[in-house]
Structures are given as C-alpha cells and as structure tokens.
Amino acid sequence: MSIPMRVFTAVPMTQGHAETCCSWRYEPPYDRIYSWLPWGQMEALGIEFGDPDVREQQYVSLLDAEGALCGFAQLFPMVNVIRLGVGIRPNLCGLGMGKNFLLAVVHTAKTRYPGLPIDLEVQDWNHRAIRAYQKAGFKITDTYEKWTPEGIGCFHCMVYQDY
Q1: Residue 62 CB contacts under 8 Å (≥ 6 apart), including other chains
Q2: How far apart are alpha carbons 65 and 8 in whole angstroms?
Q3: Strands 118-123 and 81-88
Q4: What is the pTM of this model?
Q5: Could you report the per-residue pLDDT of 28-52, keeping only the tens digit for each?
Q6: In this structure, are residues 130 and 161 in contact, taking their beta carbons and an 8 Å threshold?
Q7: Rounded to an integer, what distance in angstroms lies between the CA atom of residue 6 and that of residue 44?
Q8: What share of residues in the chain are helix, strand, coil (percent, to 5)?
C-alpha cells in the first residue's frame, strides 16, 4: 500500500488542540515518554501547554492539508539554541511521515529564531524517532545520561544540519 506524502503546516496551538493532544494514547514502549496527563490536570497545574502563556510562546500544532491535527511541537529557547520537542498523532506513527513533519517544525523554528541552531533530545532506545530525525537532517552530537521518571536514562542530543 502506498502512503501519500503529507504536507504539514504549523499554526499556533489552540486550547482545543492541547486538549486533543492530552487524549492521545501511544502503544508501549512509547507511552512512557509521549503520553500527557489528562487535560484538566495539565490546565490546573499550569504545566507545559496547560499554561496559556507557555502554549502561546512555545507550542505549535501541525495540521495536514485538510486542517486535521497531526501533531505538535515545542520550540523551547535555551542559551544560544532552540530545543525541539515533538509529538505526532499515535495513528500516524511509523508510517514514514516523520521527515516531512520534522521539516515543517524546523522551518517554523528557523523562521521564529533565525540564525540559532536547532537541537532535540531523544532516548537511545527510541530507534524509530532517531531514524526519522536523521532523515530530516539531525545528527547525533552527544550522548549522556540523565534522570527520567523511571530512573537514569541514556539520551542523544541531535543537532539539525542544513544541507
């Protein structure tokens, strides 16, 4: 079966988009890192896109040509770098759309923060994500351990390389 190429557009993340992202459930082992708290908790705690100011400043939603919500991205400004966090709708994972999805996110980051390097972190066991990041132009530049809710985890830092 041939999967049509998707074109993604980044738009400001609305509260409705945020609520929808909280309802997404991923299959193991991805559920450990991609599932959010229920929307009511996110909003009550004011964390991540549950905080309207953080949502407006750092989050975008990725829509397909029909306007369907396909994923989200966080563009987190750090010292001299923009750190990405991304999530794609669970039923779209593993279908070969990651490269186009990530290139839309990179384009948005480069437009908002011209001249700054773009990076992301990924756990070393997440081979599916690593392959997608590599296809989109990210290269592993560092590997390190850090604390996760499950204990110490091994992470790669991947930096976007313009072709």
Answers
A1: 8, 9, 10, 69, 70, 71, 72, 73, 88, 101, 104, 105
A2: 7
A3: parallel
A4: 0.92
A5: 889 888 889 999 999 999 999 999 9
A6: no
A7: 35
A8: 35, 35, 30
